[in-house]
Structures are given as structure tokens and as C-alpha cells.
Amino acid sequence: MNRRRSNIEIIADMLRVGENGAGKTEIMYTANMSYSQIQKYLGFLLSHGFINKVKLGNPSVSYQVSEKGGELLRNIDSIVEVLEFRNGNNGHGA
Q1: Residue 88: burial class (beta carbons within 10 Å; 0-12, 13-18, 19+)
Q2: How far is the C-alpha of 62 from the C-alpha of 24, rounded, in Å?
Q3: Higher model confidence: residue 56 or residue 29?
Q4: Which SS3 state, helix, strand or coil, does residue 20 take?
Q5: Is there a contact between 64 and 21 (Cβ–Cβ < 8 Å)?
Q6: Domain coordinates of the chain in residue numbers?
Q7: Which carries the bigger pLDDT value, residue 3 or residue 48?
Q8: Region 29-41: what's the mean pLDDT?
Q9: Which of 7, 24, 37, 51 could join 45 via S-S bond, C-beta 3.0 to 4.6 A?
Q10: What is the pTM assigned to this prediction?
């Protein structure tokens, strides 16, 4: 199955990567994103307080999921589970 991910799925993937702290490049590759996507979504998550920017040194920066971001990820996972998006099952059978 090769469908495009929704915004919510992309955000959930980013939050999963950032749960233990991750750099921008790691998030980009692990969440399978383009550079323009990482810029857009990182800006959104930072501005809404779902992730925090953590300075590790110069110029090293890491992104860490905030408590609010963890809650968002749990909510997304619950919704996805209920709607069964993960298995590609849209409820109409095969």
C-alpha cells in the first residue's frame, strides 16, 4: 500500500521519533520526510508547544516531545486505533 500519509500521521511519526529526543536530521529521515516538510511541521509543533527545542551544545540542538505533545500522540494513537487506519482497513472489506 503506497498511499500518502495524512498530516496527523506525519505529526504522530515525528512525535514518536522525538519522544527520547532527536535532532532535525534524525526526525527527517526516521519519519521519512522532505526538508520542506520538516521545516513546516517542526515550526507547527514548536509554536504549539508539542515539542521543545533543547540546546545540547553549539550548534547541536535536539527536539524533545513535551508533556502536551505526548498527550497529543496518545490521542492520535487512540483515534487511529478506533478508525483502524494503521491496517489500511476502511471497514468495507477486501
Answers
A1: exposed
A2: 7
A3: 29
A4: helix
A5: yes
A6: 7-83
A7: 48
A8: 93
A9: 51
A10: 0.79
